[in-house]
């Protein structure tokens, strides 16, 4: 599983603990420390689940919930709000504002991971399935193997992760910046042009030596896995 989590909290040590818990269960995690950055991140690289503390600086978590539910492109996004203990009634306010789950601090990281997985089972169970199939391509998340036309395709770790990301939504065009986040998260040292290199390698291997258009280049927009 590599469902994408956006984790927002201003406590670095707390973020790290939760990030490790999610990563250990196969999730891909990116983080933010300020509520003011959430809107831009949700638009540039939409996650599969938003996990945030209610008391983040910049924009209160409850306000973020309301804004997301009013956004036509994001209103279905699952949201888990982390609420400090002693905040009487805040969890009810958060649920009314659109949060799907509220967890009162302190809690165990394992409980948060379980709740997120249960939430995904309700709203997007395909993200928890270990097999992805698009046309004659099959990707097994658990075995970390890819087959095309019943032939196994050997991929490096980055190319595997990139193909998995593209196979989730065949036909959708992803920008280089979105693909960069899917591979390297928040690492600002990576040039977006590195995506071109990995796309080239992936294309070469999964084409099985033939000239086909499984991965399309959309000029000025990015890349897409053909919906074939």
Describe the overall structure:
The longest helix has 15 residues, at 109-123. This protein has eight helices and eleven strands. It has two domains: 4-126, 3-Layer(aba) Sandwich (Rossmann fold); 130-225, Orthogonal Bundle (Arc Repressor Mutant, subunit A), CATH 1.10.10.10. Strands 2-1-3-4-5 form a five-stranded parallel beta sheet, with helices on both faces. A four-stranded antiparallel beta sheet has the order 6-7-8-9, with helices on one face. It is elongated and about 65 Å long. By secondary structure, it is an alpha/beta fold.
Q: Which helices and strands occur, and which strands form pairs?
A:
Elements: E1 4-8, H1 12-24, E2 28-32, H2 38-44, E3 49-53, H3 61-70, E4 79-83, H4 90-97, E5 101-104, H5 109-123, E6 131-134, E7 137-140, E8 145-148, E9 151-153, H6 157-168, H7 176-184, H8 194-206, E10 215-218, E11 222-225
Parallel strand pairs: 1-2, 1-3, 3-4, 4-5
Antiparallel strand pairs: 6-7, 7-8, 8-9, 10-11
Helix pairs in contact: 1-5, 6-8
Concise synopsis of the structure shown:
The protein is α/β, with parallel strands linked by helices and about 230 residues long. It has helices spanning about 10-25, 40-45, 60-70, 90-95, 110-125, 155-170, 175-185, 195-205; strands at about 5-10, 30, 50-55, 80-85, 100-105, 130-135, 135-140, 145-150, 150-155, 215-220, 220-225.
């Amino acid at each position: 599983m590599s469902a994408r989590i956006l984790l927002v909290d201003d406590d670095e040590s707390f973020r790290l603990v939760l990030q490790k818990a999610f990563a250990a269960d196969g999730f891909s995690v990116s983080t933010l420390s300020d509520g003011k950055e959430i809107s831009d991140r949700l638009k540039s690289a939409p996650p599969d689940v938003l996990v945030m503390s209610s008391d983040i600086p910049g924009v209160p978590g409850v306000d973020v919930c309301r804004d997301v539910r009013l956004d036509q492109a994001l209103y279905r996004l699952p949201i888990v709000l982390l609420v400090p203990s002693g905040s009487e009634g805040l969890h009810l306010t958060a649920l009314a504002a659109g949060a799907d789950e509220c967890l009162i601090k302190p809690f165990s990281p394992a409980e948060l991971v379980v709740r997120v997985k249960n939430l995904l089972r309700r709203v997007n169970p395909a993200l928890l399935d270990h097999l992805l199939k698009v046309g004659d391509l099959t990707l097994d998340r658990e075995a970390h193997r890819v087959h095309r036309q019943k032939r196994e395709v050997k991929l490096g770790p980055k190319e595997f992760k990139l193909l998995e990301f593209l196979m989730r939504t065949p036909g959708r065009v992803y920008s280089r910046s979105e693909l960069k986040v899917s591979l390297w998260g928040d690492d600002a040292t990576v040039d977006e042009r590195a995506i071109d290199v990995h796309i080239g390698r992936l294309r070469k291997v999964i084409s099985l030596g033939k000239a086909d258009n499984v991965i399309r280049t959309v000029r000025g927009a990015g890349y897409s896995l053909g919906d074939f």
